Amino acid sequence: MSVIVDKNIVVPLRDGIELRADIYRPAAAGRYPVLLQRTPYNKELWPITAMTLDPIRAAAAGYAVVIQDVRGRWTSGGGVFFPYRDELNDGYDSVAWAAEQPYSSGRIGCYGLSYMGATSWLAAASGHPALHALSPTTAPNDFWRDHFWRGGALNIGTLAMWAMRAIGPAALIRGRPKPAEFFPLLTQLIDDVDNFENVLRALPLNQFTPTRPDDVAFLPFFYEFLRHPVQDKWTASLLMTDKHSQVTAPSLSIAGWHDLLLAADLQHFRAMRDGAGSEHARRHSKLMIGPWAHGMFHSVVGDLDFGFRANGMFLDLKEDLTKLQLRWFDRWLKEERNGLDEESAVKLFVQGRNRWRDENDWPLARARATPWFLNGDASFSSRRTAMSTDARSFVYDPHDPCPTCGGTLLLPTQYSPGPVDQSALLIRRDVLQYTSSALSTDLEITGAVTAVLYVTTSGRDTDFIVKLCDVHPDGRCFNVCDGVLRLSFRDGQSRQATEPGSVVKINIDLWSTAMVFKAGHRLRVLVTSSDFPRYDRNPNTFELAHEATKLVPVLQQVLHTESGASHLVLPEIHSN
Predict the structure, then answer these.
(1) Which one of 143, 175, 312, 511 has the fewest beta carbons within 10 angstroms of its own beta carbon?
(2) Are 481 and 513 in contact (CB under 8 A)?
(3) pLDDT, tens digit (0-9, with 9 covering 90-100), for 40-74
(4) Residue 294 annotated to the active site
(5) Closest Cα partner for 143 from 240, 227, 228?
(6) pLDDT tens sequence across 275-328
(7) Catalytic site includes residue 258
């Protein structure tokens, strides 16, 4: 089918703002379902807008595809961009507009990756009846927490990178500085991105020079997010978590085990299955989880090759991401009986075994929550061993933080996301290691992983970071999942100082995984107190880290006593 492209078509909003969209549609006259993507990253930037669904292929398959610049970005009007604030109403108006076009059948689907996934969710939550299906990929749920705060620690690497590189250049252009000022400002912004880690070491972060704190029209959201380290009335306005009951269309959520929005995608699926606004949406929403990092649907993730089947172009040797989503939209927008109803609700990639597996639900009901202990002899075991010491200790010095080494990252390209060899960390004195014996049989861990630590610190506040790792027979050690907790935020609601030297029980969410630790491999847990520049450095003084001008080293302890038995809870899967 031949395709035509209409450029910069005006989409009027209720408040008079005009957004602009590019439209890819069949050349033949007729009415077609519409697929809507709303992006802050430039509707013409195909490496992002076409990453999970090719609009030309979709148009050739009988869809009109509308890719729109959101308010305040690129060709659209609307003043200074502020993430998510206007996307609910703007999504409603955009869906309404798409349903009324002469080429439209009146049935709309929303899709997109990351921010575009969030605009899909918010359009669905807006309640417009023309929206019949959505396919959000790696999409936030709590837009304040999922991007920029985790366990009370500021995800400064993502916030700074997103502000400086993804949003900053276009925001600079829209600000229309004088020609004599523009190129020096742009050059400095690019130099700051290239000098990322050193720039982030400057204190205090609430005077972060690259985001020009004195220019309220440049990147105002950067400082607004810093002003809300705990949930409050403002952060409540950035929640999708209370809106799934307003979504009546089924969702196909696509997630990655090494994606910084993994937890959000799992929350979306559970919320849709339990409380979507229609029985139709509750029954038919689906979830796919690959071994991917954010925006990377390759077979090689970090330092590991998960095999041909993992690649987004050859999913399980059956189809690519475009075909997967077109089948989804064919079912709900064209009402084709294509077998989708009979497919499993969950399709997950089991790492280590490197195969896809169908499941009926998430989390898996057959997973057994099993404690594995961090022992005083540095062993990691499902049984507590004789203590060689009641506690192990290390010094955390924020002047020399533990460097970021893999994980659920969204950072400049010199920081590789996903599973990365941890050798650089194993030689550091501020990293505790706990290692199991070699496994005699395969061990599958699929589900949520939690660390329960009994700790002390000589500071009034500090961080603890835990990584679960897979140690190969050749000694290479790869991170599987991890988590962070800032002690002052340990109740998740308000800040409270720690009494130096007192024993504190903390729970650290390592999110979820599906991993087979093969026979001959060992499990290893790393415990440290920094992961920089992924997270901001805790000054250990009970000051807010982004306001601190002084950093103080502290002594940390992890306890292994009978009453303070630090451990991980692993969701073991056993064969019948």
Answers:
(1) 175
(2) yes
(3) 999 999 999 999 999 999 999 999 999 999 999 99
(4) yes
(5) 240
(6) 999 999 999 999 999 999 999 999 999 999 999 999 999 999 999 999 999 999
(7) no
For 3-143+239-359, CATH number out of 3.40.50.300, 3.40.50.1820, 3.20.20.70, 3.30.70.260 equals 3.40.50.1820
| Type of residue numbered 554 | V
The label of the residue with tokens 């749920």 reads 141
Tokens of 343: 């497919």
Catalytic residue among 76, 105, 114, 530: 114
Catalytic residue among 128, 132, 258, 294: 294
Q: Which of 54, 90, 259, 397 is catalytic?
A: 259
Q: Are 329 and 323 contacting, i.e. CB atoms less than 8 angstroms apart? A: no
Mapped onto helix, strand or coil, the DSSP state of residue 294 is coil
Q: Please give the CATH architecture assigned to the domain spanning 146-236.
A: Orthogonal Bundle (1.10)
3-state secondary structure of 516: strand
pTM, 2 dp: 0.97
Q: How far apart are CA 277 and CA 133, in angstroms?
A: 13
Taking the C-alpha atoms of residue 243 and residue 122, their distance in angstroms, rounded to an integer, is 8
**Using an 8 Å Cβ cutoff, are 65 and 55 in contact?**
yes
Q: Is 259 a catalytic residue?
A: yes
If one looks up domain 368-573 in CATH, what number appears?
2.60.120.260
State residue 519 phi and psi, 5-degree precision.
-55, 135
In the block, residue with structure tokens 């690959």: 290
Nearest by Cα to 481 from 457, 517, 521: 517
